[in-house]
Specification:
This protein is α/β, with parallel strands linked by helices. It folds into 3 domains: about 160 residues, P-loop containing nucleotide triphosphate hydrolases (Rossmann fold, 3-Layer(aba) Sandwich); about 130 residues, Leucine Dehydrogenase, chain A, domain 1 (Rossmann fold), CATH 3.40.50.10860; about 130 residues, Rossmann fold, CATH 3.40.50.720. The protein has 19 helices and 17 strands.
Length: about 450
């Protein structure tokens, strides 16, 4: 039997529901908090008091790394989801169930069995604060969600057994999805694989689905990347292409098959915003989302483009930057550069659009031929100039100086005409593939709570 891991905040019933579930399944039940206490030879409040939270977390990591991999039900401490190393261990070959309850119910349960404080806030405020802080991590941890506030421990265990047996997608929804994907341009080999996972004989009802949403998105390397990662991290997931001319039907299909997440690409990064239930602050300010995580019936929107752009430029805090372009990804780039405290000038073919974006981002703007006036240390190309089959560079060779750092967001071809010219001029270069890798790394963390090393991503995309 695949290992079953229960996540959730304190007081959501992980221990009580987990022991009933293990009994029903006839397998051992392990509680990571109890294992920590056993190994430390004293109760958790004492470990917190005498050794501090950091040492408790270290003990917790050790316990999690040594858990059996199958035929067991595991209840975890409420904070394990915040540590990517824990998530890598706990998600491997496991079915992960998030237990939830209303904050008032959690508060009432905790009043009966107090735990060590995690903040200096009063108990009720602490529950609200910690739930908000951990919400993305709980969403990432959940394959399935079970509400425990209005049911008994036996009722919650029965609901989990039902999910293990039947999954969370009705047969009619599986069949409708097969029909929907059949009328999209999904390549035949990928369609065959998807149909097998959805309705094929002996399909696994617990498999979770993800995909790239775009029009077109036949060129996207995300299915290859994510499916390779699922294999490597032993996740029971399948990644496909939701390729359709409008985002509405894509979201309908994604919700109908209880999708775990979507990577959103051209032309839906703005349109998706009106289909989301909750949106991260950065995505709101950028005005676009490229990542959707579905958990417990809620669609959360994120923008990882700006994080992907920010990461390799983090050492250039405070420099003078020119951003070429004022479209979708330029908005994410402007947010990243401003976040790094750079002096940013946006130059665009249509200066009006540069002005509008600069107004939103709080930076300078100009027309395309204002490049020399801006005298940048860093250039970021956020136009599609140089994207296959185009062989142009957005800048003339004589505009490149060896002191410059040049970042091209275009990633097809891997070495664009701009990157080739910048290397020839002796500039430091950052390719679009690097940015793609960093944004995918963030996306994977939002989907599953796991942090993938850059090297693994480069290896898969090589
Ligand atoms: P977009 O919203 O269509 O914006 C395109 C921008 O480029 C607009 O400002 C447009 O100017 C300008 N532009 C288009 N053609 C031009 C030309 N021939 N000369 C000068 N400027 C031109 O596109 P986007 O979503 O921002 O994507 C831009 C590029 O970034 C694409 O190549 C995409 O593949 C790449 N990208 C890479 C990553 C990554 O992870 N590496 C992520 C996202 C996007 P006007 O305002 O005048 O039309």
């Amino acid at each position: 039997m695949r290992r079953i891991v229960l996540f959730g905040y304190r007081g959501t019933g992980k221990t009580a529901v987990g022991s009933v579930l293990a009994q029903d399944l006839g397998v051992p039940f392990l509680d990571t908090d109890a294992l920590i206490e056993q190994q430390a030879g004293r109760p958790i409040p004492e470990i917190f008091r005498d050794e501090g939270e950091a040492r408790f977390r270290a003990r917790e990591r050790e316990v999690i790394a040594s858990l059996p991999g199958h035929d067991v039900v595991v209840a975890t401490g409420g904070g394990v989801v915040m540590d990517p190393a824990n998530m890598e261990h706990l998600r491997k070959e496991s079915t992960c169930v998030l237990l939830t309850a209303d904050p008032e119910i959690i508060g009432r349960r905790l009043a009966q069995a107090p735990r060590p404080a995690l903040t200096t806030l009063p108990p009720e405020a602490e529950v609200a604060e910690m739930l908000a802080r951990r919400r993305p991590a709980y969403a990432a941890a959940a394959d399935f969600c079970v509400e425990t506030g209005k049911t008994t421990n036996h009722g919650a265990a029965r609901r989990i057994l039902g999910l293990l047996r039947n999954g969370n997608i009705p047969d009619a929804a599986r069949e409708a999805a097969v029909r929907w994907f059949a009328q999209t341009p999904l390549p035949a080999p990928e369609r065959v694989q998807l149909e097998a996972r959805l309705t094929g004989p002996g399909h696994d009802p617990q498999t979770r689905f993800l995909g790239v949403a775009g029009w077109p998105c036949g060129h996207s390397r995300s299915p290859h990347l994510f499916n390779s990662l699922f294999e490597r991290y032993r996740l029971n997931c399948h990644y496909t292409r939701f390729e359709a001319p409008a985002i509405g039907p894509i979201m309908e299909t994604a919700r109908a098959i209880d999708a775990k997440g979507l990577s959103v690409t051209i032309p839906f990064k703005q349109d998706i915003m009106s289909c989301l239930d909750e949106i991260d602050d950065a995505a709101l300010q950028i005005g676009a989302a490229n990542t959707v995580v579905f958990a417990c019936g809620t669609a959360y929107g994120w923008n990882t483009d700006w994080l992907g752009i920010r990461k390799p430029l983090a050492g250039l805090t405070g420099t003078r930057a020119v951003l070429l372009g004022a479209g979708g990804v330029a908005a994410a780039a402007a947010y990243a550069l401003m976040d790094l405290g750079m002096e940013v000038t946006i130059l665009n073919r249509t200066p009006e659009k540069a002005r509008a974006l600069a107004g939103r981002a709080g930076c300078r703007w100009g027309a395309w031929d204002d490049f020399e006036k801006a005298d940048p240390d860093l250039v970021v190309n956020a136009t599609p100039v140089g994207m296959q089959p185009d062989t142009n560079s957005p800048l003339r060779d004589d505009q490149l100086k060896k002191e410059m750092t040049v970042c091209d967001l275009v990633y097809t071809p891997p070495v664009t005409p701009l990157i080739a010219a910048a290397r020839k001029a002796g500039c430091t270069t950052i390719t679009g593939t690097e940015i793609f890798i960093y944004q995918a790394q963030e996306q994977f963390r939002l989907f599953f709570g796991i942090e993938i090393p850059d090297t693994t991503l480069r290896e898969i995309l090589a």
